[in-house]
Design brief:
Helix content: 40-55%
CATH superfamily of the domain at 2-172: MFS general substrate transporter like domains
CATH architecture of the domain at 2-172: Up-down Bundle
Number of strands: 15
Strand order of the largest sheet: 12-9-11-10-14-15-13
Structural class: alpha+beta
Distance between the termini: 54 Å
Number of helices: 19
CATH topology of the domain at 2-172: Growth Hormone, Chain: A
Shape: elongated
């Protein structure tokens, strides 16, 4: 900011002289500062609005860059009307710099108690630029025999350099979304009043369950974030076939609670994912080829709509809303505060883990897996994990024995590739399956299974650097087993592609993708997590669009870097992956892994042919577009999408 303000203030001192130099009268030239201040007045309000929408650092960067460009353009501005126009525009861009400098300091201050001190230090340092700018400008005019070339060069260059440094800071900030307030709801009946409160004070409301959204759509700028992670009650019916569950509960806590009733829910593996986010995306899982997606096992839901009222969504009450919230995207139609879930007691099963440590085996294993796994008996759901140097297959054979699973593997052709290390175990209980791949790759006797990783608290993550965080009754659901240690935060880059049954992945494309994974460094922890799909059975008619056609799902993950050059390398790698693979497999993608850089229409990619119906439901339940995010279903049919 020192360089930016150093260059920015110099024209303030010499603009009237510049006007007189090019033929303006003294009175008209002095009025140039009035024009500049008028533009500045407008900008100080407008840039605040833009900063809330696009981010403070992003906005101040464009203001600084705009000032620099205008100053370079001053070389050709000599006519009085043009000079007046310059004054107004320069006032607009410089006004944004003045109004946002303190806000940017506040944004990156970890302890709110020191905001005043930091802003004071920043202003003291920047004031040196204001003090020295005027004499430097005068000296440059004198050395140029009364001309302004030297002054323009100096001001424009240091302003542009300052803008470049701000851009570097922006690139270094992983988070550019900062809500106005975060409210932690404890009971479902608190959510409606919070929605009304947000509307009263002119803020959007954004729900947060697990906080797993890769693009931070659960913490948007200038919004009221309604965190429902403490709405985590579980009430199991006497027959143990259904349960009413707080929508903010995390999957690990849900599974831990249901363990006491010897039953479970058909859900995903990651224990820190929130139930609401899982179901709004459809919810793929390791039982889905036989039992369907998580959204197929929802019987009803309580939804707080934009008017603050709570409605029941079910097959007989608001059935259109019930359809939309199961796979049609989260944070769009209302805030789900409770689900009624269908429960199921899973049979003992067999588990599979095969690994290859030879880099050269990765393509052949991935190729054979994609040809074999999706067409196996529906009870076998499996995945292949393709890493930089190794490859691994994990599988859960629901209700099957170790001998039956061994027979499938013997016929798969996988064991003829390289030197695989094979672990096949049977008689595995459901707890084994929940921790499989996390801390075990082979079933243990029931009493030896360490399920503490599932016993997560409502806010289960480690503290982010030294930033303060709010904690409230962070208790596990049971004290009869160990509590999960805090999950480490990391910067995550991800992409999602569905391979469709009528458009299988060609071998040469697969080979190139596997080779691309080898290009990144070890620090990236690059990982291709590819699941077999080809789901059997009846759907519960939710809005997830790819259930019938999906043959496999390909997800790619990378741990981001604090080093700007390395981070850019990773982002460029993902851009190359997108430009190569998307035209090959098509637009289909999983809405639970939203991607800011997807090359297709995101709504078409996430919701397919259901977009038009979802738009209609959005109009019905949220006609003012109160619940929204950058990739939410809009009120109007998006450009490029045709409805029948």
């Amino acid at each position: 900011m020192f360089l930016v303000l150093w260059g920015m203030f110099i024209p303030f001192f010499y603009l009237p002289i510049y006007g007189q130099y090019y033929g303006m009268s003294e009175s008209k030239a002095n009025n140039l500062l009035s024009y500049l201040n008028a533009g500045s007045f407008v900008a100080r309000i407008l840039t605040g609005i833009l900063a809330d929408r696009f981010g403070r650092f992003n906005t101040i960067f464009f203001c600084a860059l705009g000032c620099g460009i205008l100053l370079f353009g001053l070389y050709g501005i000599k006519a009085p009307p043009a000079i007046i126009s310059f004054s107004v525009l320069y006032g607009i861009f410089s006004g944004g710099l003045i109004s946002l400098q303190s806000a940017c300091v506040a944004q990156i201050t970890p302890d709110t108690k020191t905001i005043g001190v930091r802003i004071g230090i920043m202003m003291a340092i920047c004031s040196l630029g204001g003090l020295t700018g005027s004499p430097i400008g005068g000296a440059l005019i004198t050395s140029n025999h009364g001309g302004f070339t030297g002054l323009i060069n100096f001001s424009a260059i240091i302003l542009t350099v300052g803008a470049a440094l701000i851009l570097a800071v922006v690139q270094g900030l992983w988070f550019d979304q900062f809500p106005a307030l975060i409210a932690f709801a404890v009971n479902a009946d608190e959510v409606g009043p919070l929605v009304k409160c947000a509307q009263k004070f002119g803020h959007k409301a954004v729900p947060r369950t697990g906080g797993h959204h890769f693009l931070a759509y659960s913490a948007l700028n200038n919004t009221l974030v309604i965190d429902i992670s403490h709405i985590n009650h579980v009430e199991v019916s006497p027959d143990r076939k259904t349960a009413t569950v707080g929508a903010g509960i995390r999957l690990g806590a849900l599974y831990t609670t249901l363990d006491a009733y010897n039953t479970t829910f058909i859900g995903g593996l990651c224990p820190t994912v929130g139930l609401g986010g899982l179901i709004s995306s459809g919810g793929f899982n390791m039982q889905m080829r036989a039992l369907g997606m998580s959204s197929d096992h929802v019987l009803a839901a309580e939804v707080v709509t934009a008017d603050g009222k709570t409605v029941t969504a079910s097959p007989t009450s608001h059935p259109d809303l019930f359809w939309a919230i199961r796979g049609g995207g989260g944070g769009t139609y209302g805030i789900v505060v409770e689900f009624t879930l269908q429960l199921k007691q899973l049979p003992r099963s067999a588990m599979l883990a095969i690994s290859w440590n030879d880099t050269n085996d990765r393509y052949e294993v991935a190729k054979q897996f994609l040809e074999w796994a999706p067409i196996q008996p529906k009870e076998l759901t499996s995945q292949v994990n393709v890493y930089k140097s190794t490859v691994q297959i994990l599988g859960w054979y629901l209700g099957g024995s170790a001998q039956e699973l061994q027979a499938l593997i013997n016929a798969s052709g996988l064991l003829q590739i390289g030197n695989p290390q094979v672990q096949i175990s049977g008689n595995c209980n459901t707890d084994n399956s929940r921790v499989f791949g996390y801390n075990i790759t082979e079933c243990l006797p029931d009493e030896q299974v360490d399920t503490s990783i599932m016993n997560v608290i409502p806010q289960p993550f480690t503290q982010y650097e030294n930033h303060p965080r709010f904690l409230y009754k962070e208790l596990p659901v049971t004290d009869t087993r160990g509590t999960a240690p805090p999950w480490e935060r990391f910067k995550r880059l991800s992409k999602s592609f569905f391979v469709q049954k009528d458009n299988l992945l060609p071998d040469d494309a697969l080979k190139r993708v596997v080779d691309m994974i080898s290009e990144l460094d070890d620090a990236s922890q690059v990982w291709g997590e590819w699941h077999s799909w080809n789901i059997s059975g009846d759907s519960n008619d939710g809005a997830f669009p790819w259930r019938e056609q999906a043959y496999a799902h390909l997800e790619f993950q990378v741990h981001g870097s604090d080093d700007a050059a390395t981070q850019q390398w990773y982002e460029d790698w993902f851009a190359g992956l997108e430009s190569f693979l998307r035209p090959v497999v098509g637009p289909a993608s999983y809405s639970g892994y939203m991607d800011a850089d997807i090359s297709t229409n995101p709504l078409e990619s996430y919701y397919g042919s259901n977009v038009c119906r979802l738009v209609g439901i959005k109009k019905t339940y949220d006609p003012e577009n109160f619940f929204t995010n950058p990739d939410a279903i809009p009120l109007e049919i998006p450009e490029g999408i045709t409805c029948n």
